[in-house]
Amino acid sequence: MVAEIGLFALILALLTAFVQGVFPLIGASRGDTALMRLAQPAALVQFVLIALAFGCLTFAHATSDFSILNVVENSHTSKPFAYKISGVWGNHEGSMLLWVLILAGFGAMLAGIKPRSLATLRVRAIAIQGIVATAFLSFIVFTSNPFARMFPAPADGMDLNPLLQDPGLAIHPPFLYLGYVGFSVTFAYAIAGLLEGRIDSDWARAVRPWALVAWVFLTIGIALGSWWAYYELGWGGFWAWDPVENASFMPWLAGTAFLHSVRVLEKRDALKVLTVFLAILAFSLSLIGTFLVRSGILTSVHAFAVDPARGVFILIILAATIGGSLMLFALRAPSLTSSTSFAPVSREGAIVFNNVLLVAACATVFVGTFYPLFVDITSGERISVGAPYFNATFLPLMAISLLILAPAATLAWKRGRLSLAMSRLWPALVVAGAVFLLAAWMNWPKPIAAAFGAGLAAWAGVGAIADLLVRIKAFGSPISDSWRRFMGLPLSYTGMTIAHTGLAIVALGVIGAGVWRSEDIKYLQTGDKIFAGAYEAVLTDVREGRGPNYVSEMAVFRIEKNGKFLREMASERRFYPIRGMQTTEAGIWTTIAGDLYLTLGESSSNQGWAVRAYFNPFVLWLWIGSGLMALGGIVAASDAPRLLERRRKLNQSAATLAVEA
Amino acid sequence: MARLFYLLPLSLFLLLGIYFAAGLTRDPSLIPSVLLNKPAPSFDLLPIEGYEDGFSSQDLSDEVTLVNIFASWCISCQIEHPMLMELAAQGDIPVMGINWKDKPGDGSAWLKRHGDPYTLIGDDANGRTAIDFGVTGAPETFVIDKNGRIRYKQVGPITPQIWRDILKPMVEDLRDADVENFSGSDDVLDGNHTDNGPGTSS
User: Fold this and answer.
1) In chain A, how many domains are there?
2) Dihedral of alpha carbons A474, A477, A480, A486, sign
3) Among A229, A236, B30, B67, which has the minimal tally of Cβ within 10 Å of its Cβ?
4) A497 and A530 both lie in a single domain
5) In this complex, which of A277, A299, A315 lies closest to B21 when CB atoms are compared?
6) B21: which chain A residues are within 8 Å (Cβ-Cβ)?
7) Contacts (Cβ under 8 Å, ≥6 apart) of A364
8) Do A366 and A279 share a domain, yes or no?
9) Distance between CA atoms of A558 and A565, rounded to whole angstroms?
């Protein structure tokens, strides 16, 4: 019964989305308000229907309803309840349903704010959301029905992929989707703006909060995914340039570039073409990222079940959405003219330069991700592109970005002075130099480039904070004064400073965990020790254990430093008999200086157990820095309601003035 | 001229679309299918320590056979082992073993401890034969038909469910059907759950 209700709700949602997509668009072009009024209720109804369908699938998973194929394939009665719930989106059909649920959620929010407004820009944006939803709902209904029945119902299910039975993985896809799909609003506004031929400061003000929200979610999602890979996959790394990771990173880079350029559009009414293009690019890359992994075009550890029929359908949707919007861009963008020109040494000049870097970085990731496909199709050879390529192309671009970050933020709009920047930033230069020398000395003879990178990160981070301190006159005026000034700073500036500091901290984490790590692998008998960084791990015991749906081997270590006992750590290997899969549960001890990371490998009858030990410096900084970046985004976005309110009042007073006149 | 500039993204995307479309025609599970429906590689393996008979490709004829890659250092093999023991007890299908990259004595000690389900065992200490079979990790099991051709590769342990749902029906089909007309399935389970050999990344 639940399955039928769910499927029926999905079909109704598809019809509603079609109405939402087509009629308001016609209405907006003809000035027919009756048709335009359809947009808002349709968006809300569509959301309610999809939420109902999602609820049905969740209910089926929670109650282990094995008459539904999706539950059979991804659940098991012995699975912990939380993973029964996360199992809803731990598979192709369910994750698609979550995707459209979030899409409809953003559509409903867009429709719910200022419900009576019939501004054609907003109505068109809601309609574009409807069109996107129509495409993906038909994909679900026609090729990926999550409610397919299985008859006869088996006694038990096949269990969720054990790699996915983990808190990090249970929550990171929803965040990633909130990020990916959040860019659909930016995209919808871009298309609506192109249709109207109006991309200006008002447009920028309407779009920026949505883009910030999407960016914050995407930032958190990527960080969570990286955190999951770090402690669950058991290889001690946090980023592997895997196609799926790249798929989430490319929209992030494009989205970051968009956030910078939309700010220029808002302030200076310039960079229209670039901003619109980045809005289309960010969402297009989100689509490519979400769906390419499902089509079988790229294969990866993360890939869902592969089905050629789905692949063709996805390709058609991508061609229509991305191709269609780029076609519109080619037709309409030439007529977008900017009212202002600007000087190279100015905030906007620096932002343009930064965006060139970000787009170039995005392109290098794109080429690296798809190069194996290009080569395979062109010459039939199978190759893979690994970390060396990405390190050689992506990292230098990021280094330049870090170099200009602090001075750029000190520059004024319109025309900046570099001398002012330097007068504010000399403390950052001193700190950066000290960090560089210290890093080079401590890690000699490791690559000097890493020490240089650490110096750059310090320059960017300390520079961002130094600029803030100068602005609030932190030195030479009473603290209460400075605090008042701090509270009086525009939230967009405060958010930017927090995010930039976060970026610098992430950069230090990347250098620490990526370059300065130390690693050892050995066969250990109980009583033997292995070294990692300054620590020694002594294997004291290996026990066999049993969980709800797995059996495990657990190694217990005693951690010592200079012969002094510090603590005990455990590392586990689990085997999930139902799926026939094995996972590693690394033992991790996190400190601010770095992580001690132990994994248990195979055993050999006469040599003992294979144990890997890593010391990964500054890993914690990755998570702290990512958190700060997200916080910065939230702070900047929280300015939006206040600005909208102020604008409304301005309009009102203008209107009263007009009436009085 | 300026117009052409704005068409650039669209043209690049169309080019990309062509590649994606071509990409759809690829078989992502290509690596396992290379050997599928081809004769098993020829090999002649020595016996493992304490055994008299080795195992060679000559032994693969006239009968549907399972060839199992195992090693004493491989935990998943240990988990799979009871299933193989059960198959051996039923005596329904010969199970041949290839002892992969084990130290002399380790394989036979392991079999002494856990029981020996194999009809014949060959010692592949240097892993050459496993390379010819395209083995990526242990355990892996190959279904060989009456004509000595590889029909299926099971990556990871054979669980009772895999035996019941995939391997057993396939073995029965291969026994009954006219071998020439049988079209082998390309489905191969994903290979994330095997040990990749001592000392390599997992």
Assistant:
1) 4
2) negative
3) B30
4) no
5) A315
6) 315
7) A390, A393, A394, A397
8) yes
9) 7
Helix, strand or coil, per DSSP, at residue A602: strand
* A432 and A581 assigned to the same domain: no
**A80 contact partners, CB below 8 Å, separation of at least 6:** A165, A548
Chain-chain contact of A602 with B198 (C-beta, under 8 angstroms): yes
Q: Are residues A291 and A310 in the same domain?
A: yes
CA distance A630 to A216: 5
Task: Provide the domain limits for residue A491.
Answer: 417-514+624-661
Contact yes or no for B10 and A163 at CB 8 A: no
* Residue A307: pLDDT over 70: no
- Taking only the tens place, the pLDDT of each residue in A108-122 is 999 988 766 768 899
Which residues are paired to B100 by β-bridges?
B124
pLDDT exceeding 70 applies to what percent of chain B?
79
Q: Percentage of chain A with pLDDT > 70?
A: 90
| CATH fold for domain B42-181 | Glutaredoxin (3.40.30)
> Do A275 and A317 reside in the same domain of the chain?
yes
Is position A385 within any domain? yes
Residue A434 has pLDDT above 90, yes or no: yes
Amino acid at A353: F
Q: Cβ contact (<8 Å) for A334 and B6?
A: yes
User: How many contacts does A have with B, using Cβ atoms within 8 A?
Assistant: 121
CA–CA distances in Å: residue B33 to residues A412, B151, B153: 62, 10, 9
In a domain, A190, yes or no: no
Residues A151 and A235 occupy one common structural domain:
no
Residues on chain A touching B157 (C-beta within 8 angstroms): 580
Cα–Cα dist A302/A310, whole Å:
17
Of the residues A302, A307, A326, the best mutation for testing chain B's interface (the one with the most B CB atoms within 10 Å of its CB) is A326
Regarding whether A323 and A266 lie in a shared domain, the answer is yes
Return left, alpha or beta for A296; rule: phi > 0 is left, psi -120 to 50 is alpha, else beta: left
